[in-house]
Every structure is written in C-alpha cells, then in structure tokens.
C-alpha cells in the first residue's frame, strides 16, 4: 500500500496506515517503534577498524615482503653471522611502517569528514493523541502526523494531508534544481519520487506550511533505499592497486626464478647445498625492491597533502592516481556545475529582452520590480536576510538592485500559491491605496490580464501583444530558464477577494536560472584539452540541462544526444553502450539506479569513470565508479562516505587540479620505479660474478639493504613529489591497458642505466683489489681489511651512480640541463642525505661494524666519479634520440 499511497485521498491514506488525523496514541507509537525500528538511515556499512588495519599488512606486495623477511630469518638460522637477521627485521619494519602510515592517512581523512555530517533533522513536531509534541526524529513511526513549516527538513517519507503554499527542494534526492510545488490532492503519477503529494526524507520545505502522514521511516524511505543501494555496490580495485598487484606478481616471479637459477648454478659449480640455498635467498631478497611500497605510499600521501591545499580531500590513497587516469567524468548539474541558487538572468519588458542587471530605470521596470519585491512569502530577518524559496529570494534581490530605496508596504491579504493555480497574489497597502501584485506561470496569469504596461503607458492587451508574450516565454524557456509572469492593478478598498485576480495589468516576464559556477567553463575546456570526456547526468529538466551545458561549453554542436529517464529505462545494456558512443550526450531526469546503470555501461566500454555528485541519489554511482567525487559543503554524508575524494569547496574546477596531481603521481611513480629498479642490476651482478667466475662476493646482503632501505629512499621520495609537467593536461589519458612497469621502463632501468651502474660498481671492486696486488683465485676472508675495502668501493660506486641517476630519472625525454638541477628541493635534501649516509657507513666505526665496510681512499672516489658523468652523457644521447623520434612524423 505504501508504494501507492500517493494515489489515495487524504482520508484513505491515513486510514491505510491505521492512523487518525489527531495522530497515533503514545502506546501504539511505542509498539510501532519496536516493530519498525528507529527512524535512522544507517551509515554506509564499514568493515571493523581492526580488520581494515590488518588488511594493510596482507595485500600481495606485503605478502612478498613477509616472505622476504621469512627467508632472511631462515638464512640466518642456516648460517649465522651474515647479517640476514638484521635484513629480516628491517623488512618487518618496512611492512609495519607502511601499513600504519597507509591506515592512518585514510583514517584521518574519515575523521575530517565526520565533522560534515548532518543527515536528518534532530527534532520534529508530531501529533500524538491529539496534542502537538516535539520528539527526536529517530522516534517517528509510520502513521505519525507531522507538522511542518517553512525551513524544516523532512525527516521521513510522508504523504501530505494539508498543504498551504508548499514548495519543496528535492535536489538531494532527485537532483532537481528548482523547488517543486506540493499539495494534498491525490496524484496520478506512477513514480513516487515525482508525486505532488509526497515529501521525501532528506529534502526540505522552502515555503509554506503542511501536515503529513508518515508512511516510511529509516531504511524503508527512498533516502534509505538509496543508502542501501550504495552499501551493496561492490568496491573495485583502483588501476594503481591493480598495477601494484601485477608488479608484485612480476617481481615475485622474477625473484623466485633467479633464486632457483642461482641455486642450481651453485650446485653445478660445487657449492654445498646450504651455501647454494643462502645465496639463492640473497638473490631473492636483492630482487625484491623493499623500498617500493613505502615510497609509493609516501608519494601518494604527499600528493593528498598538496590536493588538500587545493580543497580536495582524499579519503583513499590510490584515488589520487586513479583520478589522473580518468577518461570520463559523469557530473551532476545542480550544486556541482551550478551554484545551487537561483538568479534572474533575463527579463522581457516593454516588448524587449534585457539582461537582469541592465534594466533601464523607467516606469515599466519600476512597476515590474515593485511587484517582484512585494509578491512573495519570504521571511525577512532584522538584518534584511531573506529566508525561503530560492526563486523568490532571487526576484527580491533583483528588485532591490533596481530599487535602491526599496518600498516596504505591508501585506494585508494574499491569494496563496497552489499547483492548480500556479500563481501567487499579495494585496499590499500603499500610500496611494491598495495594490494587488501577482506572479506565476504565464499560462495562468495571461488570461487574467486585460492591459499591458509598455514604456510607462498602459495599453490594451490585444491578440498581437498576447502572442508576443507567449513567443517571449518560449524563447526564454528554450534557454533553459524558469519563466514567471508579473502583473498588478490598483484595488478598491472593499473589493471582494474572489474578484481580486481580474483585470490585471501585465508587466513583464522574468527568466530565472541556477547559474553555473564562473570557473566551470574553463574547467570544462581543460578537461577537453586533457582528453577527458565530460557527461552531464542530472535529475533536472532536459531543456535546463541543455541550456547550462551550452553555457559552460560542455555542448558545442547543434545535434547533441539528450536522453531522459524514461528513454533510459527502456534501453538495454547494449543499447546504452552504443548510445554512449555519441560525441556529445546529456542524461536528464534520471534516478539513482539509472545513474549507476550509466556508470556500469561506461566501465564495460573500457572507460575509467569518475563521478561527481552531492545528493543521496548520487551515492550508489559514486561508490561503483572508479573514482567518486562528492561535494563537501552541499553534499549529504551518504554521498561523502561513498566517495573517494571530497571537494571541500564544492568547486568542479578543483577536479581539474586534482586530475593534474593524479597524472603527476603516475608519472612520478614511474620515475622512482626506474630509479629503484636501476640499482637492482648492480646488486645482482656481483652475485652472478661470484657464482660464475668464483671471485670474492663484491657486495654483501646487508650492503644491499643499505641501498634499498637507506640511501635510495629519500631521493626516490623526492622523485615522487615532482610537480606536474606543464604539458601534462594537454595529453590524453593513458590507456587502461597501459602498464606501470612497461618494456621501455624495464629496458631503460635494467638494460641501460642498471648495466652502466653495474659496470661502475664492479670496476670499483676490481680497482681496489688490483691496486693492492690481489690476483685472480686468491681467497679473501670476510674480515680481511682488503675485502672490506673492496666491497665498500662497490657499495660507494652504486651510491655515486644513484646520485647522478636521480637527476636523470626526473624526465624520460627532457635533458637534465633543461629540467634543471635545483627545481626539486626534496631531491636535493635526498642527495645530501644519501651522501651523508654513505660517508657515515664508510668512515665511522659503527658504520663499518654494522655494514661490513672499511674506509676507502680519495683515489677510489676519483676513479668512480667519471663513470657517473659517462652515464650522464650516455643518457643525454638516449634522450636526444627519444625526442627526435617523438618529433618525427
């Protein structure tokens, strides 16, 4: 019965809920509260805090690190004194720090959102047993009789039983920007959302007074159903999460393969089983870039801090990069592209169109503005603040600008607005007598008029003039404006109220709009330049949606595709996918489930979809999309909890800045991935040389740890904070199938930069041995000073090469000299720290003891440094060839 309650008369509606006009008894209300539960929309379901914390330690890359730590402890058990236990503890520390940091970032973002929560009114007026009581909204039950007045939020779904000038703002549930009139008469509408006698939970009464019978509470309301739809929408991994998982599998496979190969090779050349196993474990550990995940996390976290300064609060770290890869943005209109406030844009006076701000101060405009100023039901505070219907507020503001000395004439009577009359009339007492002011839809005002005011003259309203006003209305409506007609006349002192609205003088027409945000047009243009498609998905009227789309540059052609909710409902999934291939498309009058349907179809087309919104109706799509962007000020908390990013200033233009940051993050991850992976080759080659050529091991596992978790970390993080490239937003989004670890990156890191670094490292090792008279085949004990110096030279050479490498990795194609050496302060601090660490490792007793090193002479440094400049020269040649290839057709 609840689904059809809007079809019933007032008496039948109340009777169907076993209620009475004087309300439920206290006992019956208590019984129903037990049966139906509290009137509360549950928050989006969240996993327990402890489980979410544990998940930070059980994703695939973390499991690889757990395995690496376990292998290190096994190796220490098999052969103590090799530093493997220290490596194991260090890896465990990396897992712990990274997990805690990731969890803390997301938890802190959620706490910031908690301050924005304000779902439903806390106190409501209810008829209980024939008396009015003020109760917490949570105690409402089906059958309660609500008493509502202007400014109240609607606490539950209810059917009007009495309505006086009621207008309701449904934007948070249906997405409609304009307040809608409501009355108590039975409705023939099929859809409950658009029935004229229904008030929905989560909406607000902008004008009028009403009584209504509650028929749905809590999760049974339309508001609650949308929240439930949000909860059941599954969460998908972000593109970055998928890439990190893929990278983790590749790293695990490569490390395991090399470990097995080394084990077999060790057995083949005569090493004992345990020696072969230990070196295999060493190879596996050397190939796991332990610093990658914390560096990725820190880079994302630092990007979130930069985005927060640009009014974008990131709730989930991977969302930073995901937004950068977005190919489509599905955006709501009301409050997102527009300001969610009405304004008079254009008027038709004296037979001419004028912009609202350019009215000439003549007799016609003064009469028009006086009616706009006086014909309303607004509340005016002591400091002249206007409270009530946004449309009436907009008209009064326009009139105040035109009439600086705004007359204030008392209202002595009114003929109230209702949905059948579609007009409001007020009778005001002026010094010259009583004047009736009327405003409303032209089709209801025009038949009441016999004259028209043009250029200060009052003329007979003939058929030709009537036709001109009708054509003017169609012109304004074609621009997506809400059109109101204004009329007035002097009224005799004792004239009957039933005859007041007759013989009126038509004054003019006003076209109102919810104006677009001034910065949105530029943001849309930047999205187009960046190859990002923007699709408007709104609950508003198609004409309004199309007009706003043209105004902000979202629609440029004469033949866009406009699909309304009814058409969308009749489409199959395949038909919708085909329709989405249109160059320009707008969806209007769509519901929450339909918005979700659109997002699903776009994802099936292979798009990476970002969705913006602020209402409860947006929440399911926000959660299902690759990236959900909610409004922080005007948005409901259901929308905010469902989103990945919250715009603290409700500014669509902030999305462009966030996209730029997201794209920079992906590029920066590639930069420090190149940097980190490069050092793997000079870490592996010493083991290859040891096994194949039976030389002393040039680099110990603890020294590998010094590079991976020590010297490489800060410079890599510096690469993660590189600013977006100036041309970043002129490129199309990267393809969905494009990999983080692709062949050009692998070839550059492993087969070019890594090989040069390995050559320098091995050259430094043999340089120290050669200058001290060592010969091939001569055994060296692990504590031999010569051996310690030789391994120190290998380690120091890797660090020197990585100092140069961090500057080379700032760009894959730009010259170091073009990009500059001083543009990134964190890289400079990282390099300074890197140099300080290697000096401490090489020249302090505790550094020597901890890392198995010994001081080396200046001659070793002078031998190594030319290799760094040789790598610079070779990389500059490669970049020159790369630029030449890109520029050639």
Automatic annotation (TrEMBL):
<comment type="similarity">
    <text>Belongs to the cation transport ATPase (P-type) (TC 3.A.3) family. Type IIA subfamily.</text>
</comment>
<feature type="transmembrane region" description="Helical">
    <location>
        <begin position="53"/>
        <end position="74"/>
    </location>
</feature>
<keyword id="KW-1133">Transmembrane helix</keyword>
<dbReference type="Pfam" id="PF00690">
    <property type="entry name" value="Cation_ATPase_N"/>
</dbReference>
<dbReference type="GO" id="GO:0016887">
    <property type="term" value="F:ATP hydrolysis activity"/>
</dbReference>
<keyword id="KW-1278">Translocase</keyword>
<keyword id="KW-0067">ATP-binding</keyword>
<dbReference type="Pfam" id="PF00689">
    <property type="entry name" value="Cation_ATPase_C"/>
</dbReference>
<keyword id="KW-1003">Cell membrane</keyword>
<dbReference type="InterPro" id="IPR001757">
    <property type="entry name" value="P_typ_ATPase"/>
</dbReference>
<feature type="transmembrane region" description="Helical">
    <location>
        <begin position="821"/>
        <end position="841"/>
    </location>
</feature>
<keyword id="KW-0812">Transmembrane</keyword>
<feature type="transmembrane region" description="Helical">
    <location>
        <begin position="86"/>
        <end position="104"/>
    </location>
</feature>
<dbReference type="InterPro" id="IPR008250">
    <property type="entry name" value="ATPase_P-typ_transduc_dom_A_sf"/>
</dbReference>
<dbReference type="InterPro" id="IPR044492">
    <property type="entry name" value="P_typ_ATPase_HD_dom"/>
</dbReference>
<dbReference type="InterPro" id="IPR018303">
    <property type="entry name" value="ATPase_P-typ_P_site"/>
</dbReference>
<dbReference type="Pfam" id="PF00122">
    <property type="entry name" value="E1-E2_ATPase"/>
</dbReference>
<dbReference type="InterPro" id="IPR059000">
    <property type="entry name" value="ATPase_P-type_domA"/>
</dbReference>
<feature type="transmembrane region" description="Helical">
    <location>
        <begin position="740"/>
        <end position="766"/>
    </location>
</feature>
<dbReference type="InterPro" id="IPR036412">
    <property type="entry name" value="HAD-like_sf"/>
</dbReference>
<feature type="domain" description="Cation-transporting P-type ATPase N-terminal">
    <location>
        <begin position="4"/>
        <end position="77"/>
    </location>
</feature>
<dbReference type="InterPro" id="IPR023298">
    <property type="entry name" value="ATPase_P-typ_TM_dom_sf"/>
</dbReference>
<dbReference type="InterPro" id="IPR006068">
    <property type="entry name" value="ATPase_P-typ_cation-transptr_C"/>
</dbReference>
<dbReference type="InterPro" id="IPR004014">
    <property type="entry name" value="ATPase_P-typ_cation-transptr_N"/>
</dbReference>
<dbReference type="InterPro" id="IPR023299">
    <property type="entry name" value="ATPase_P-typ_cyto_dom_N"/>
</dbReference>
<feature type="transmembrane region" description="Helical">
    <location>
        <begin position="786"/>
        <end position="809"/>
    </location>
</feature>
<keyword id="KW-0547">Nucleotide-binding</keyword>
<dbReference type="GO" id="GO:0005886">
    <property type="term" value="C:plasma membrane"/>
</dbReference>
<dbReference type="InterPro" id="IPR050510">
    <property type="entry name" value="Cation_transp_ATPase_P-type"/>
</dbReference>
<keyword id="KW-0472">Membrane</keyword>
<protein>
    <submittedName>
        <fullName>ATPase, P-type (Transporting), HAD superfamily, subfamily IC</fullName>
        <ecNumber>3.6.3.8</ecNumber>
    </submittedName>
</protein>
<dbReference type="InterPro" id="IPR023214">
    <property type="entry name" value="HAD_sf"/>
</dbReference>
<feature type="transmembrane region" description="Helical">
    <location>
        <begin position="853"/>
        <end position="874"/>
    </location>
</feature>
<dbReference type="GO" id="GO:0015662">
    <property type="term" value="F:P-type ion transporter activity"/>
</dbReference>
<dbReference type="Pfam" id="PF13246">
    <property type="entry name" value="Cation_ATPase"/>
</dbReference>
<keyword id="KW-0378">Hydrolase</keyword>
<dbReference type="GO" id="GO:0005524">
    <property type="term" value="F:ATP binding"/>
</dbReference>
<feature type="transmembrane region" description="Helical">
    <location>
        <begin position="277"/>
        <end position="301"/>
    </location>
</feature>
<feature type="transmembrane region" description="Helical">
    <location>
        <begin position="250"/>
        <end position="271"/>
    </location>
</feature>
């Amino acid at each position: 019965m609840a689904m059809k309650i809007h079809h019933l008369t007032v008496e039948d509606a109340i009777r169907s809920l076993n209620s009475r006009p004087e309300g439920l008894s206290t006992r019956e209300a208590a019984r129903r509260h037990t049966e139906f539960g509290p009137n509360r929309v549950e928050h989006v379901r969240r996993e327990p805090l402890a489980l979410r914390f544990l998940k930070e330690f059980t994703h695939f890359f973390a499991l690889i690190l757990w395995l690496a730590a376990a292998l290190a402890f096994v190796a220490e058990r098999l052969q103590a004194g090799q530093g493997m236990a220290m490596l194991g503890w260090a890896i465990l520390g990396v897992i712990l720090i990274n997990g805690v940091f990731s969890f803390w970032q997301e938890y802190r973002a959620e706490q910031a959102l908690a301050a924005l929560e304000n779902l439903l009114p806390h106190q409501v007026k209810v008829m209980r047993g024939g008396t009015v009581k003020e109760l917490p909204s949570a105690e409402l039950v089906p059958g309660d009789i609500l008493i509502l007045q202007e400014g109240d939020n609607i606490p539950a779904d209810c059917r009007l039983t009495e309505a006086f000038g009621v207008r309701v703002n449904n934007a948070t549930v249906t997405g409609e920007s304009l307040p809608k009139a409501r009355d108590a008469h039975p409705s023939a509408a099929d859809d409950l959302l658009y029935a004229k006698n229904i008030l929905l939970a989560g909406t607000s009464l902008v004008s009028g007074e009403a009584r209504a019978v509650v028929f749905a509470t809590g999760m049974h309301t339309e508001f609650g159903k949308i929240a439930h739809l949000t909860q059941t929408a599954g969460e998908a991994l972000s593109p970055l999460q998928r890439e990190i998982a893929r990278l983790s599998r590749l790293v695990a496979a490569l490390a395991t393969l090399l470990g097995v190969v080394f084990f077999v090779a060790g057995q083949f050349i005569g090493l004992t089983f345990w020696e072969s196993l230990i070196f295999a474990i060493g190879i596996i550990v050397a190939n796991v870039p332990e610093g990658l995940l914390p560096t990725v996390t820190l880079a994302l976290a630092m990007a979130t801090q930069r985005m927060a300064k640009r009014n974008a609060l990131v709730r989930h770290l991977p969302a930073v990069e995901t937004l950068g890869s977005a190919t489509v943005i599905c955006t709501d209109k009301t409050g997102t592209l527009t300001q969610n406030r009405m304004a008079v844009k254009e008027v038709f006076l004296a037979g001419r169109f004028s912009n609202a701000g350019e009215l000439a101060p003549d007799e016609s405009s003064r009469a028009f503005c006086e009616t706009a100023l006086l014909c309303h039901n607004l509340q005016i505070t002591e400091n002249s603040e206007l409270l009530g219907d946004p449309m009436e507020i907009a008209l009064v503001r326009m009139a105040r600008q035109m009439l600086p000395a705004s007359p204030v004439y008392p209202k002595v009577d009114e003929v109230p607005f209702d949905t059948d009359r579609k007009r409001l009339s007020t009778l005001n007492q002026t010094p010259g007598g009583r004047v009736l002011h009327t405003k409303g839809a032209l089709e209801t005002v025009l038949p009441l008029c016999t004259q028209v005011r043009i250029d200060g003259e009052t003329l007979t309203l003939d058929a030709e003039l009537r036709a001109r006003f009708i054509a003017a209305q169609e012109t304004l409506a074609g621009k997506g404006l809400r059109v109101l007609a204004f009329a007035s006349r002097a009224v005799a002192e004792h004239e009957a109220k039933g005859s007041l609205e007759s013989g009126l003088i038509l004054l003019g027409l006003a076209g109102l709009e919810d104006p677009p945000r001034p910065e949105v047009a530029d943001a849309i243009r930047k999205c187009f330049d960046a190859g990002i498609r923007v699709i408007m998905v709104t609950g508003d009227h198609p004409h309004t949606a199309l007009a706003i789309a043209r105004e902000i540059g979202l629609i440029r052609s004469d033949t866009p595709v406009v699909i309304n909710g009814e058409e969308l409902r009749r489409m199959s999934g395949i038909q919708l996918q085909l329709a989405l291939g249109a160059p320009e498309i707008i969806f209007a009058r769509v519901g929450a489930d339909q918005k979700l349907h659109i997002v699903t179809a776009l994802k099936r087309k292979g798009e990476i979809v970002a969705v913006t919104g602020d209402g409860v109706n947006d929440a399911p799509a926000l959660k299902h999309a690759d990236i959900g962007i909610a409004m922080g000020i005007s948005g409901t908390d259901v929308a905010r909890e469902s989103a990945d990013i919250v715009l603290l200033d409700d500014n669509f233009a902030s999305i462009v800045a966030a996209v730029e940051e997201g794209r920079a993050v992906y590029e920066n991850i590639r930069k420090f991935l190149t940097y980190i992976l490069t050092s793997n080759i000079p870490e592996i080659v010493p083991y290859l040389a040891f096994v194949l050529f039976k030389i002393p091991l040039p680099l110990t596992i603890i020294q590998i740890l010094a590079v991976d978790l020590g010297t490489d970390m800060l410079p890599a993080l510096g690469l993660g904070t590189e600013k977006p490239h100036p041309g970043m937003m002129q490129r199309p989004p990267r393809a969905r199938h494009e990999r983080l670890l692709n062949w050009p990156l692998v070839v550059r890191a492993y087969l070019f930069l890594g090989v040069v670094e390995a050559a320098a490292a091995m050259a430094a090792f043999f340089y120290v041995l050669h200058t001290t008279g060592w010969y091939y085949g001569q055994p060296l004990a692990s504590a031999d000073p010569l051996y310690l110096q030789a391994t120190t030279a290998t380690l120091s050479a890797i660090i020197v090469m990585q100092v140069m490498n961090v500057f080379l990795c700032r760009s894959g194609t730009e010259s170091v000299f073009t990009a500059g050496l001083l543009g990134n302060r964190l890289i400079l601090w990282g390099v300074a720290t890197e140099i300080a660490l290697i000096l401490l490792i090489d020249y302090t007793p505790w550094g020597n003891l901890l890392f198995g090193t010994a001081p080396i002479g200046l001659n070793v440094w002078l031998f190594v440094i030319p290799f760094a400049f040789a790598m610079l020269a070779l990389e500059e040649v490669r970049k020159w060839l790369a630029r030449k290839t890109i520029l050639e057709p």
